[in-house]
Design goal:
mainly alpha, Serine Threonine Protein Phosphatase 5, Tetratricopeptide repeat
Length: 291
């Protein structure tokens, strides 16, 4: 943390605290899973943007979007939502309704709605974002793949597994082609496709995918990254379904430690893993008590 404070102060002293530079730093921190630090930098970026370009400029919209994303990743959806809406309004007015930046805000707002279970609000935003990205950047582009992945999440979360699969499969194919087989984006698609297979009871199809996703994330993002924790949690869930509870428990515990340390004890993902451990312990106790 000391180096982080030193870096921000050094940027200020050197007079290079332009909002765009700070936005880039905030995005790097989010990629590294350092969401609280990203929040701090995004706030600085927003304040600087207001001074440099005013409240209705695309740079200001980018700062708002990054601040909203930092809140979103920390599970602070109520704080993220109004910032994302404001960013969307600016981008629609300044860049136009069919600009990729507008699509980015549409996708981000849809993600916030989905995480809160507001699926009917999320779906039209995802579809509009997808149409914009396909028209402006093409059908084989990482941004297109991201929205396809997120639409897959939308259907998965509603239990519509057969509808989710083609979106995950398209997203994975694009990412492997454009980003490569060992990119974190590819790992995200692998992880989510495996999750649907697990929920459908297709354990043999799920296992190699989630293991590959975990290997990529550990190697590229690191062993203590929040997305690594996601794959650990999902592999543990698969082991539970396979009856391998002894293999599941250490993975759950490792995922919980990462999530508690980085996301905090009250984050929805931390609570999810804690409940998984409690359910595993309860199941074990019930079997031990059985005659």
């Amino acid at each position: 943390m000391r180096w982080f404070v030193w870096l921000v102060m050094a940027l200020i002293c050197n007079g290079v605290t332009r909002a765009e530079s700070l936005n880039e730093q905030a995005m790097r921190l989010m990629d590294e899973g350092r969401y609280f630090e990203a929040e701090t930098v995004a706030k600085l970026s927003y304040e600087r943007a207001l001074l440099d370009v005013g409240p209705d400029h695309p740079i200001t919209a980018a700062s708002l979007s990054n601040l909203a994303s930092a809140y979103h990743f920390q599970g602070e959806y109520k704080q993220a939502e109004p910032l994302t809406k404001r960013s969307l309004t600016i981008r629609e007015q300044a860049s136009g309704p069919n600009h990729p930046d507008t699509a980015n805000s549409l996708n981000n707002l849809a993600e916030i709605y989905r995480e809160q279970g507001k699926y009917s609000k999320a779906e039209p935003l995802y579809k509009r974002a997808l149409a914009i990205f396909q028209a402006t950047e093409g059908p084989i582009h990482p941004h297109t793949a991201q929205v396809l992945n997120n639409i897959g999440n939308l259907y998965r979360d509603q239990g519509k597994y057969n509808q989710s699969l083609p979106f995950y499969e398209r997203s994975l194919a694009i990412r492997e082609q454009v980003l490569g087989p060992d990119h974190p984006g590819t790992a995200q698609s692998l992880n989510n496709l495996a999750d649907v297979y697990r929920r459908q009871g297709k354990k043999g199809q799920a296992e190699p995918l989630v293991k590959r996703a975990l290997a990529i994330r550990e190697q590229v993002l690191g062993p203590d990254h929040p997305w690594t924790a996601q794959s650990l949690n999902n592999l543990a869930l698969l082991y539970v379904k396979q009856g391998k509870k002894g293999q599941a428990e250490p993975l759950f515990k490792r995922a919980l430690k990462i999530r508690e340390d980085i996301l905090g004890p009250d984050h929805p993902y931390t609570i999810e893993t804690r409940k998984n451990i409690e359910a595993l312990a309860k199941n074990h106790a019930e079997k031990s008590d059985a005659p």
